[in-house]
Amino acid sequence: MTAPAVPSVLFVCVHNAGRSQMAAAFLTHLGAGRVEVRSAGSAPADAVNPAVVEAMSEVGIDISAEVPKVLTIEAVQSSDVVITMGCGDACPYFPGKRYLDWKLDDPAGHMPPRAKQSPP
User: Fold this and answer.
1) Is 88 a catalytic residue?
2) Which among 12, 13, 14, 71 is annotated as catalytic?
3) Residue 98, CA atoms < 13 Å, CB-side half-sphere
4) What CA–CA distance (Å, rounded) separates 62 from 6?
5) φ and ψ at 91, to 5 degrees?
6) 91 catalytically annotated
7) Tens digit of pLDDT for each residue in 83-111?
8) Which entry of 56, 63, 83, 91 is annotated as an active-site residue?
C-alpha cells in the first residue's frame, strides 16, 4: 500500500524575496511535513530581503538559508494550489490547478522588524 500523496502548494510573487518566502515558511512550519511547499518569483531577486529574514526570526522561523528561485512551468505543473501575490499574468495557467491571488503589500520598504522600531 502506498502512502497518500501530500498536497503541494506554490507561493509566487515577483521577486521571491519577501511575501512568497514568508508564506512558504509559515506553511512549512505549520504544516509540519503534511504539505509540500514551494516558492518562486517571476523576476527573482538576488537574495531574500534581510528585513524579512529578521521578521521571521522574531517569530521563531529561520529562513536565513533561503534563496529566491525562478518560477518554472514544472513548479506550477507539480503543484495542487498556486497562490500568487502581485505577479500578475507572469504565472502560467494550467487547467485543473487551483489558483488563488492574495492581495498582500510587498514588505520591501515598509516598517522595520520590531527590534529596530523606536519605543512609543
Assistant:
1) no
2) 13
3) 5
4) 23
5) -85, 125
6) yes
7) 998 766 667 777 778 887 887 666 665 55
8) 91
